[in-house]
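FAQ: What does the model actually see?

It sees only this:
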Amino acid sequence: MHEQLNFAIEILGTISFSMSGSFAAMQKRLDPFGVLIIAFVTSVGGGTVRDLLLDIPVFWMHDLLMCGLIWQQVFSQWSLNRSRKTSKSRYFFSTVSDWDCLR
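And it is asked to produce this:
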């Protein structure tokens, strides 16, 4: 029971820190690889330092689930961000073209 709760909290923490890192990277207008690197460092950086100081194996090097979660989250967030920008620009251009018919 406790192991499942710890695992769920670890997954949710990884996803939330990955989201915050990718939001910050997208605000700086980094490319997808830069967003992935910033999200990865943000989400596993603290645990990596902890594991190195305790001299235990680094958790994400042995369990690729975290790397897959981070990649999936960054890809979906990048896609949503791109589609939202595209739809806004399409809406803007269709509105401007509609103004021409009012003259």
